[in-house]
C-alpha cells in the first residue's frame, strides 16, 4: 500500500493507493495479513443482513494518464501516496502536463 485516507462518520470511507492491482490482490489473499481474520469475522456476522453495505472499486491507470491538482494545501491523495511535481514554465496547463 502506497498510502491511504480514512473518513469516519455516518458514511465511513477508506481510500487506499496501491502500486498495482497485483499488490492489492496479494495483500487481500495473504493469510498472515492483519486484516484477514477481522474481515472474515465481520463478513460472517453482517453479510446479507442489510445492516452494512460495502462499496469497492479498483482502477488501474498509467501515471501518464492521470493528473491531480492541489492549490494551497498539503500533500493529499495521490500526491501523498506518490510524489508531487510543481507547476512551472511549460506546465501551466493540463494539456502541457499530460503531454497532449
Properties at a glance:
single chain, 100 residues, alpha+beta, two-stranded antiparallel sheet
Low-confidence stretches: none
Residue fraction in strands: 5-15%
Cross-sheet strand order for the largest sheet: 1-2
| C-alpha-based Rg, rounded | 18 Å
| Rounded mean pLDDT score | 88
SSE map:
Layout: E1 3-7, E2 13-17, H1 21-29, H2 36-46, H3 78-81, H4 94-97
Antiparallel strand pairs: 1-2
Question: How does this model look, in words?
Answer:
By secondary structure, the protein is an alpha+beta fold. It has 2 domains: 60 residues, no CATH class; 38 residues, no CATH class. It contains 4 helices and 2 strands, in the order ββαααα. Strands 1-2 form a two-stranded antiparallel sheet. The longest helix is centred in the middle third of the chain and has 11 residues. It is elongated, with a radius of gyration of 18 Å.
Produce a short descriptive summary.
The protein has 100 residues and is α+β, with helices and mostly antiparallel strands. The protein contains four helices and two strands. A two-stranded antiparallel ribbon has the order 1-2.
Amino acid at each position: 500500500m502506497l498510502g491511504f485516507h480514512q473518513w469516519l462518520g455516518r458514511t465511513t470511507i477508506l481510500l487506499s493507493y496501491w502500486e498495482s492491482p497485483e499488490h492489492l490482490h496479494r495483500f487481500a489473499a495473504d493469510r498472515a495479513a492483519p486484516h484477514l481474520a477481522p474481515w472474515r469475522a465481520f463478513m460472517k456476522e453482517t453479510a446479507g443482513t442489510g445492516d452494512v453495505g460495502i462499496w469497492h472499486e479498483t482502477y488501474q491507470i498509467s501515471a501518464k494518464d492521470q493528473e491531480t491538482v492541489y492549490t494551497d494545501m498539503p500533500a493529499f491523495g495521490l500526491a501523498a501516496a506518490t510524489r508531487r511535481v510543481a507547476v512551472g514554465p511549460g506546465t501551466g496547463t493540463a494539456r502541457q502536463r499530460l503531454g497532449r
